[in-house]
Inverse folding.
DNA sequence: CGGCTGCTTGAATAGAGTCAATAAACGTGG
DNA sequence: CCACGTTTATTGACTCTATTCAAGCAGCCG
């Protein structure tokens, strides 16, 4: 999409110098802890979530390889969300000072990071609309499509069949539903012929219908980066 | 919080060179239109919203003086949200190229913009948790507290009494509720002695109780900007 | 094998939505 | 300044969606 200069590439590689394995279920950042490092997720799938006072959990976002995570540490002294691994992961920790150096030396990378922020903002606002204004069935369909699409961006081998890697409890925490109701909605999508399930694998048997049920709109269609400053 | 250098101040003033009045109810950006300018909101109150296929609306965010709006135009060819004026407003339009120039010349401003993105991200994820996991009463209480707080940041004269400037329909579109149910929740908060209403003005009669009802957490408490690169 | 954790299903309940009717506030043109 | 039409607020009755509670089942791992 954008071709980086050799210098830019080197600057980004500097952020990924160190690596750290994170086993499934482990946490790299805990809500209200003092923020330390930020990370680039090298491999695996993670999630950010918050706990409410009544003990319920809201999953805010899923993270995949290539995502920059724990970035809110740039602004806040204390983390506002918990970030934990849904599969065995590898992350590359880096310091805020290293990040500041990248911004100082590479204005085009700064611009690209701002663009990524906007893409994430769009994803969050889409989810906001889904939680605020759509039915349980639409929410479940939406999360299935969204996760399939993001997995496909990293592994072109994935098409209509994929392993979600989430419990129904987790689907519920992401969609604002109870696990019980998630189960019922999955069954309904299955009964209506849009979906098949077996041993944790999902298969879209009628993708169009599923997209209609989910109110799906593709947000990765119209990126426009013509305005970026020159690379260094 | 951060003292800008004279150069930095001048660069930002360049973005605010032109001004344009926007009457109440008018739209500065329409969903799916080709994105053009970005804006700094000089005076007034605006909102971003999206329309779903079934005709329902979700209000994503409220904007106040000083906010940089329509920034998603940096990433997308087409606007993902509608931005319209809730009161008579004045905006300062600027071009992406002007923005790119700021980033190229002033790395610390780039860093500050990224920080602002993170603050907005935190606000959006808070709202996500509210929509996903809290009751109608909590959502209504939360929006009242949030808007009061943001108004107070611009006008220190506001304390427990303020004019919201929203219809109950709009409160509903922001909280994911129907106007009818918003009305019932307002009445309930009133009956429970947390709130008084008259002629569009709200008065918090028991702010602690209201905060408890809303699950309120203060997100503007712990900003940390020690890591920024040097100013130019 | 036994103890988890996750999945599935039913029945009863509660919370929010829908529909409808009325009242109050607002804006506009005469 | 008033009359009229429109938007906004209010309230009741009813419906429906999603939650809660409960029980049984399946798969997995030590």
């Amino acid at each position: 999409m954008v071709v980086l200069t050799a210098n830019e590439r080197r600057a980004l590689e500097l952020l990924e110098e160190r690596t750290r394995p994170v086993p499934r279920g482990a946490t790299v950042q805990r809500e209200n802890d003092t923020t330390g490092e930020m990370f680039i997720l090298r491999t695996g799938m993670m999630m950010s979530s918050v706990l409410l006072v009544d003990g319920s959990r809201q999953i805010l976002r899923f993270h995949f390889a290539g995502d920059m995570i724990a970035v809110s540490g740039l602004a806040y002294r204390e983390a506002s969300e918990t970030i934990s691994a849904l599969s065995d992961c590898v992350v590359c920790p880096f310091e805020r000072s290293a990040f500041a150096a990248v911004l100082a030396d590479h204005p085009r990378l700064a611009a690209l990071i701002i663009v990524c922020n906007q893409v994430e903002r769009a994803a969050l606002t889409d989810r906001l609309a889904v939680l605020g204004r759509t039915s349980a069935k639409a929410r479940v369909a939406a999360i299935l499509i969204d996760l399939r699409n993001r997995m496909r961006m990293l592994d072109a081998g994935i098409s209509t069949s994929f392993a979600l890697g989430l419990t129904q409890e987790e689907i519920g925490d992401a969609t604002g539903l109870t696990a019980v109701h998630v189960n019922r909605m999955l069954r309904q999508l299955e009964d209506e012929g849009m979906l098949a399930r077996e041993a944790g694998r999902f298969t879209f048997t009628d993708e169009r219908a599923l997209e209609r049920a989910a109110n799906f709109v593709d947000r990765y269609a119209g990126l426009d980066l013509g305005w970026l400053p020159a690379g260094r």
Summary: Chain A has seven helices and eleven strands. The mean pLDDT of chain A is 92.
